Amino acid sequence: MDNSDLESGSGSGMKKKQKLNDPVDDKHEAVVDSSPQEEEEEEEDEEVVEKHRYRSMAKVAIGNLINPTLENSTITDMVHIVCPTFSLDTSKLQNAILELYREGKEKIKKLLKDAGGKLTLSCEWKVLGDWKWTSEDIVGPILHQDFMVISVYFANEDFKMRKWILAYHPHSPQDMKAKDVYLDSFKNVVKDYEIESKVSTLLVPNNVDLGLDGWIEERGESQINTNVFLIYCCSDVFRLMADDLYKDIRMSWLMDLVRILLGWESDGRLYPTHWTHTLHKLQTAVDMEAKDVFEDDKYDYYDYPSDEEWVRIRTFCKLAGCIYKVGKELFDGEYPTANVYFHLLVELKVMLKDEIKNGDGEYFLSKGMEILERFDKYWSDMFLVLATASVLDPRFKMKYLDFYCSKNSDDEGSKAKTVLDYLRNLYSRYAASDISPLPERAVEPTPRCIFYMFEDEVEEEEEEEKKPNGYGEFAFFQEYLKSEGCSREFPESSELDSYFKEPVLEWSKDLDALDWWRKESSKYPILSRVARDVLSIPVSRGTSNRAYVADKRECPEFIVALEGELLNAMMCGESWPATLIWPSRY
Questions:
Q1: Which stretches make up the HAT C-terminal dimerisation domain (predicted)?
Q2: CA–CA distance, 301 with 294 (Å, rounded to integer)
């Protein structure tokens, strides 16, 4: 927002001043009445200036998620620096936000409809975190506590991943428990943005029965086709496996015994919101128990877990430790594309089988089998899409899938052919469509947020934290790297066969697979588009710490006091590419 935008137009309704050539005192001034036409033009100019001013402030409110209903806010402080007499009208600010949203939505609709690739829609239930907020965090009545968020994921023409929120709607807790709430939310967004033919994948919570088959039959041939993939969130299945292990500890109040022993502050919550936090605390207790720390006299007055209860705790730590070892690499690594999930989930599968094989005790074996059964269901549902993404990773191609299948039973040993047949069929469908080679383009720079308050408040970018590298401890993957691989014959009759005939790339953990396909798009004009659409499928709704949340993720506190239309405009607009949707000048 330019200072001139705020300072200009402060003389609305005043008469023009004109200097007189007074020979005695040229500082004297006389007032000359403006004509009615001039006064009308001044009023029109002032309206334009005021509109521009509120649009500028609306951009700041959206980009920084500042509550627009407050008369005294960061926006007010910012404006008063350059225009001390300005009085903020919050209703005008809210109207400007809604106007920006409506304009932006039309542009987003066009961008999605014109996009060359396919789209993935995801749904997520967000809630007000009742353990966290205080009366100072939320101004006004709490109007909503539950929200359904629909987001779109895709890779653009520059092979860059994009995620935009398309709907952020409040619902009552009763509505959120309705059978069709997820399906209806998808339907409404698809219809509203007119992207029926563009959606190829739906990302849903792991325990949601979407009932998609009925939707497809209802919509008919002109709507979403029956080849749509249902993707179940990977971080959800990790959380559910951890919860399967934890439920016996939680139900017996054993966690409270451990909390007291460790002097663990509860932070106002009965249980932590991240299951990894629970793992860390219980593992600390196990390590202390192994060193006989609790034999010290100072623990004589504490209740102490029984031998049976220690078995439960050690079982949780051992099996949840396997889950976390893979989860840390998968989620903390913040990989943007789907190609890394297959081989890392294979590692978890191998770890769990080894633990069960070498485990001791009825309780340990029963819990191990319980979480392995949950994992196997997810693995079966997701095998095709995850394996296809792995094959489109130039570090693997068919080599890793062939190696995995060669080490497994006949049931999975034949799946390599199924994946290859599917990929050939998918390539053929793309080849049959009217696809021209992608134009040579400069790489699109990563967008920076332009919504900041003052330059001296912009924090310097923190040094990027070192990402995990657990591959050295992944036994199956290390065995794969040492293998020679089996040879396949690929007749060079298509781009796909040419891709397979080329040797795999040397292993490099940090390869950007989408960027590799961008660079090779002139060589593989059709296959690169297949790869772009497959690799851009999100497999998890959460990365980093968001992947370990115990249940539903939290919404920003201030939105619970906003009207539904306004909060939707704020949350959608904040995720959209501002420099593209709303040019800096009007």
A1: 495-576
A2: 11
